[in-house]
Specification:
It contains 11 helices and 17 strands. It has 448 residues and is α+β, with helices and mostly antiparallel strands. Bound molecules: CU-O-CU linkage. CU-O-CU linkage binds next to helix 3 and helix 6.
């Protein structure tokens, strides 16, 4: 079936599900068997791509070679490369019944379960159930480019199974330097809704670094929603997708580990009992609940070594700011003084914006206190730059849900917010002179 790009966009804009979606529906699988811990499953630590031995790299290449071969030999095998990619497509708006797990609290657990079955399928294809997915450790500055083993088109004159031609980063270019700033780091999120989302909004991890790595991998600068990684419906066709999400999964574990008292997963049954279906390594349809994926070492056979390159673990102190009907943020004189006094070197101060109405088109948007800087100024160098929003959508209709953001309350923010006019927040794509005012439900500062 051929549809023009214009056709997709028009379908998405009018809220209709384009016919394209039908092509990513999974094969019939009958009644799913509930998840149970597979016999013989043992706990194996997942490693960083940069730490893999030559033997492990070879095993990874063989596994993705086998995955691609399966699509070529039987396009309907639910374990093949394209069927695996379609699982993601279907779940990101391709499902006509409308079940988009993005931009909500199901984002983290759904992707965890998806990676688990994907990992077992790869293990089965190479006859090694101790195979574990590696993670792309872009939290470390040294890993902020496409991992070298994913870049060459061929290896020993054979096609590289980890290669994807639809990337603008196969040359090893570096990610933008402003990608993981200390104060606007999503790892500073004080609670699960701001970190991983709620029933009705997305978390800061999803809407910053997660989206940025997607869109950037496919296209630089991030002004074009390009396949594969730059669109949700095609993202999982790129083998790097699973390693990107493996790191997202690791950061969830790490965020909890850093402060298990202040930071907790949701306890609502609507979250814990929500079930998803996946085909397992034997092509059996399985049903797995959110509660089944919370203890990875016991249930899913993997864990991560502690210690992502991140910030402090202290319990956050919260200072509420007032925001008027017009979404103008105001500081008390006392809070201004606090913000203008340099904090202890070990203290991180972040500005938390809950339920912000984020843009709905794929791209990188910079956030400012007041208007964006004049054209020609590097956004992240403007004194009123607070952080960024990275949005990734696909070609399907999506629920436009709000998102939480973790920003950096800089001096310019403190100055503006303490005047009688207060400060409004704006966002704008790179280089745009006009900003859009950001609306939200609440705003506060945390110190930790
Ligand atoms: Cu389901 Cu990174 O998107």
């Amino acid at each position: 079936m051929t549809l023009t790009r214009r056709g997709f966009l028009a379908g998405a804009a009018s809220g209709l599900v384009p016919a394209y979606c039908q092509t990513c529906a999974p094969p019939a699988g009958g009644t799913p068997l509930p998840f149970s811990i597979p016999a013989g499953q043992t706990n194996v630590q997942r490693k960083a791509i940069s730490a893999l031995t030559a033997t492990e790299v070879n095993r990874l290449r063989l596994a993705y070679r086998a995955l691609r071969n399966l699509t070529n030999s039987n396009a309907n095998d639910p374990r093949g490369w394209m069927q695996q990619a379609n699982v993601h497509c279907f779940q990101c708006g391709g499902n006509p019944a409308g079940s988009d797990i993005h931009q909500s609290w199901f984002f983290l657990p759904w992707h965890r379960a998806y990676l688990y079955y994907h990992e077992r399928i790869l293990g089965r294809l190479i006859n090694d159930m101790s195979f574990r997915l590696p993670f792309w450790d872009w939290d470390l500055p040294a890993s902020r480019n496409l991992p070298p083993i994913y870049r060459p088109q061929t290896v020993s004159s054979q096609p590289n199974s980890l290669f994807d031609n639809l990337r603008d980063t196969n040359g090893g270019q570096a990610m933008p330097a402003s990608i993981f700033p200390a104060n606007s780091n999503p790892m500073n999120s004080p609670n699960f809704p701001t970190f991983g989302g709620s029933a009705s909004s997305g978390g800061s991890l999803e809407n910053t670094i997660h989206g940025l790595v997607h869109v950037w991998t496919a296209h630089r600068p991030m002004t074009q929603a390009r396949a594969d990684m730059g669109r949700l419906n095609t993202a999982a066709r790129d083998p790097i997708f699973f390693k990107h999400h493996c790191n997202i999964d690791r950061l969830w574990a790490e965020w909890l580990r850093r402060n298990p008292v202040a930071r907790q997963n949701p306890t609502a049954l609507a979250w814990l009992d929500r079930a998803f279906t996946f085909f397992d390594e034997n092509s059996r349809l399985r049903s797995i609940r959110v509660r089944d994926v919370l203890n990875t070492a016991t249930n899913l056979g993997y864990n991560y070594a502690p210690g992502a390159a991140l910030t402090s673990s202290a319990a956050p102190k919260r200072f509420d700011l007032t925001a008027s009907q017009q979404q103008v943020v105001k500081l008390t004189a006392e809070l201004k003084k606090r913000l203008l006094t340099p904090s202890d070197l070990n203290v991180t101060r972040s500005l938390v914006v809950e339920d912000a109405k984020v843009p709905t088109a794929t791209g990188l948007y910079n956030v400012f206190a007041g208007a964006p800087p004049a054209a020609g100024t590097e956004a992240s160098e403007a004194p009123n730059y607070l952080g960024y929003i990275a949005v990734i959508v696909g070609e399907h209709a999506h629920a436009a849900r709000p998102a939480s953001l973790i920003l950096d309350p800089k001096k310019a923010f403190a100055d503006m917010a303490s005047t009688s006019e207060g400060a409004f927040l704006t966002y704008a794509p790179a280089g745009a002179a006009q900003g859009t005012r950001l609306s939200f439900s609440s705003v506060y500062i945390i110190e930790q």
